[in-house]
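Reviewer 2 asked us to include a model.

Predict the structure of this chain.
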Amino acid sequence: MAARRARRLLGSLCIALLFAQPAPTGAAARSGSRSLLTESLVRTFTPFYFLVEPLDVLSVRGASVIMNCSAQCETPPRIEWKKDGSFLNLVSDDRRQLLPDGSLLINSVVHSKHNKPDEGYYQCVATVDNLGTIVSRTAKLTVAGLPRFTSQPEPTSVYRGGSAVLGCEVTAELAPLLRWERDRQALAPDRRVLQLPGGALLLTNASDADAGLYRCALDSGGTPKYSDEAELKVLPDAEEPQRLALLKPPSSLSRLPGQSAVFPCVAAGFPPPLIRWTRNEEELPTDGSGRFQLLPGGVLEIRDVAEADAGTFTCIAESGNDTLEAQAELAVQVPPTFLKRPANIYAHESMDIVFECEVTGKPTPTVKWVKNGDVVIPSDYFKIVKEHNLQVLGLVKSDEGFYQCIAENDVGNAQAGAQLIILDLDVAIPTLPPTSLTSATNDHLAPATAGPLPSAPRDVVATLVSTRFIRLTWRPPASDPQGDNLTYSIFYTKEGINRERVENTSRPGETQVMIQNLMPETVYVFRVVAQNRHGPGESSAPLKVATQPEVQLPGPAPNIRAFSGSPTTVTVTWETPLSGNGDIQNYKLYYMEKGQHTEQDVDVAGLAHTVTGLKKFTEYSFRVVAYNKHGPGVSTHDVVVRTLSDVPSAPPQNLTLEVRNSKSILLQWQPPPAGTQSGQIMGYKIRYRKVSRKSDVTESVAGTQLSQLIEGLERGTEYSFRVAAMTINGTGPATDWVSAETFESDLDETRVPEVPSSLHVRPLVTSIVVSWTPPENQDVVVRGYAIGYGIGSPHAQTIKVDYKQRYYTIENLDPSSHYVITLKAFNNVGEGIPLYESAVTRPHSDTSEVDLFVINAPYTPVPDPSPMMPPVGVQASILSHDTIRITWADNSLPKNQKITDARFYTVRWKTNIPANTKYKTANATTLSYLVTGLKPNTLYEFSVMVTKGRRSSTWSMTAHGTTFELVPTSPPKDVTVVSKEGKPRTIIVNWQPPSEANGKITGYIIYYSTDVNAEIHDWVIEPVVGNRLTHQIQELTLDTPYFFKIQARNSKGMGPMSEAVQFRTPKAESSDKMPNDQASGSAGKGSRPVDLGPDYKPPLGGSNSPHGSPTSPLDSSMLLVIIVSVGVITIVIVVVVAVFCTRRTTSHQKKKRAACKSVNGSHKYKGNSKDVKPPDLWIHHERLELKPIDKSPDPNPIMTDTPIPRNSQDITPVDNSMDSNIHQRRNSYRGHESEDSMSTLAGRRGMRPKMMMPFDSQPPQQSVRNTPSTDTMPAASAVPGAELPEPEGPFLPAEEEPQGPPTAHVRPSHPLKSFAVPAVPPAGGPFDPALPSTPLLTQQAPGHPMHAVKTASIGTLGRTRPPMPVVVPSAPEVQETTRMLEDSESSYEPDELTKEMAHLEGLMKDLNAITTA
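Predicted model (structure tokens):
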């Protein structure tokens, strides 16, 4: 003890030194002296806890019991005991005494039928004066009752080697005190003898020595109590089979982790039964190596029970052909354990605090809180929040002490505690604010420094008063009129209550606050205190404010009950609301079928109502809302009730008969439709009769299985069958009579089948189709067929098929190879005689179509009976997203297609995926079948076969059907958010489509917000087209956490949202942000800056930016120099080329010069003056070609589709500065997507020369867009100015969209056709670059000669063609190429280009005059 005191003194000195500071001088020293003194006196938390807590005890009458308890504290605590919540007076108690360590001794436990003073719940209470009190866990003392047997052993007999059970049941607390005797001698330990947990004795592998008189004895203190004696006789070995019986089935148990569980399963019978166990329908390993042990007699012992062992255990006893099963449940209960214990807390008065406590257990524990040994009763200031946490509002000094969280469930209880210390207001909390402080009071806890304190805030008024909140405003104190560095604390309490609460302002200088969570129609007192860096100042005068009364709406109607009076009615009753707040005018009763989303309602004047017209045996939920003159009140909770069951209203479905042999027929069926069962199907009633004797009906009751084998029938006799479903209410309607005839004689399986009667092979390129007919002798059982094949030998591979199959396709063979094929029928005896055939697969070059072959070909010997013809005309009709109806016709039926015999049809289906080879099948007796349970928007293939007796057809031709779409049932996955490099205000959201899209995704919606808990309608929405999996969001706030969710939609609606993904934007702008901002500052109205990529270089000469920003004077002069240079060089080149061509041209070539096109793309014409067109790079489409080489005979040929070009040779970008108007339209249309959607090909790849080459002036016509799909699309005949609709098809990703107006790629097929023609918008029609697609070549006017041009477009020729920018990829001469590469980054304004055209036109006229001379 002395050492502990020395350590405590040393700790106090360390704290004093830790908080010591250099002594200030003057007034500062005087004002700060008290602060330094109090800081050095901060109290520390005192360890106070239990070393030992009492445990549950089982005792017997007259014994002594010790309940252990020991507590630890620096000051020795005072120990007291409670029994059943009341303190024990141990001073005057002669049987109970307190031991020195705090334990409780109970001498000679008293227990009788009417007096049980010692049995109950005990709790240890430890107290330290001036510190606090703690309580221990609660321990239960159970006293075994008077010795009494609930069942006595009875005489029994057992065969030698068998098992016997002698019963002797007692209560659970007496079971450990039970023992057995034979012939009044204690039983010697024997592995064959086991005492079961309830007290019964199990004897296994009985021998003659086990015979005798048995009794059980109870040793509960004093003289043992004996049961009756029972004789056990051991009989000689059983010679005849004995019926299997369960002597001791298992019973359900409840155990704690670590305990053992024993399930008996004692069976008797001859042959001796075998016992095996399953858990949750899985076989249990009971080999003795694990925790599961199989004891003699079939008893299952589970050692060291774990929580995962809980489940259903099934004992299966098998003897000969008999099988018995018995089930029992194992429930594993877990005492409460703490996941998070309460933590010690420092606080100031008026603060709000929260003690956190997190527990787990099974069953779920309940939690109560204790303060200094007394239970905390929830009130306005002590609240239970988040299920288990204790919130204390407006602390006062008396709240100090020890708080304990006590968790309890059915199998135990536990406690954990923490200490609360309330410091003076001028004593700073010595550590950072713990998480246990609420957000309203965890500010401004830094220690104060010396200096003047602020005066009281002025003019405190309530500017807004509501029912549950008040807004206060005030002016700064007179001592600091600006008040920029002041913070404020608002203290408030109910009038007449001395417990204040505090709310702090959120930032310095703020002079208003909103006080929330107040009570309606209540008077509150408010005062405001200002605080500066030296500490809190004077308080304002108290201000009384009364909250508004709440709207007088009715409360919830109490005691709502619902019960079903019939299969279609439910009666709901309730009582008048306790808080009616005025006369109740009426009630509204809401009800809804379970699993549906639409509520129905009915107005009710009284306190009960019966709802009629409901579905039978269906769950409904009901709730009631009361109305008064102010409107609807608070709704009651939902009550769920199921309507009563009834007899089924429809017969079972798809009854089929399968003749097994001459004396048995197998019936198979499906339950009645789900909506017609009207209850739980308890079984099925089968009625059958001979067709010849309709009055003689036999009934057979089957269980809930969906098949039954009817045996004991007569040979060669036709029987009719019908099936009806049964519920507890009775039997429903039966199916129609279905007939089948038993065989005249049973098939023979004492020998192998004979050789198949025929084998036919059909070779293809990589496969061989094999078909056959069964053996001629139909009296031998055939279980299937074995097909062997290989190159040169049939033994390389073997495939076995079903006995019903008549053809098979051998796949994955080598072309032009010689295969030998063998076919053998087999049964359980073995394989029969093989039949051989050979075939040579076709070569790769053989493209001839596969001709269909008939299985029963004329040259094939067909045995009798022959296979049936397969069904024909199989059709799949789509009914919904998961249902398809299959219909077919049967050519072997009469014309009216009426089924009169015992045939049935088998429908099989699977998804149309090559990798999926698993079929599902179902039987039907009509010419249609409803396939349900399919996946939405999935292509299925179906086929049908018919079976009649032993004859079956092959599978029919397949029919296909795609189920309808359904709304997506899963959210988009793999949502990630990354910051865009160099643009900290821009983020990129990426995702993957939903795994269960249930249709074509037509779009996504991105939700983002800075508050993850905000209502979804308050989130910002960004729509994205369906084929895009990435999106940019711009102009976000720096250093701010954002939350993102994504929702997918298809044609059926919106799917679920993804989980919120958090992303925090970077803290600062990048270094290159300012130039970007300046460049985009002069964008056109409604436009957004276009991201040209990090490698983008501005055009030479300073041409206008894509956003129309003005060029500098230096750039303009540079542009003029370049234009003049280009003009001069072009003139020189043209003159040189013209002179060169003139010298080498013959007079014959001169006559054809009108149709000749030079290498630089210019035209020269010779002829009538009226035909002369300006030779200035304007191309006339009617003279595009010298002759119609590729002219199509079809006047309106359909153009072919070519995939979107992906390399630099395929894509020719157009300069950004070509048309500022286009850019403005693009930007205003795209909105947020403009920055991402503009391709940066111009910055990444070398530019190629571009020229505007319009065709003849013709009425503009919209061209058809070519989406990147393999499907052709019809041309859209839009009027001028019409806008294209937004496409449903996929869109180009942002990285692959063409720059500016996209281009269509043209395959070179002629020297005059080797160029790509990019489309530009027609006059009057807005160009819509938001439709990312590969545009088509626009069409030629009808009056002009038509030439078929091979293009990468979809559409027809012969329609109007607006002007287009044309890129000429054919190689120019070397000098021009060099010049063009030098000028590749130059661009022209339209008026400048017109001037250049005019100069060139004059030059060409001069050249014409020279050449003609």
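The two ends are 132 Å apart (CA to CA). The longest strand covers residues 132-143. We have added this to the supplementary material.
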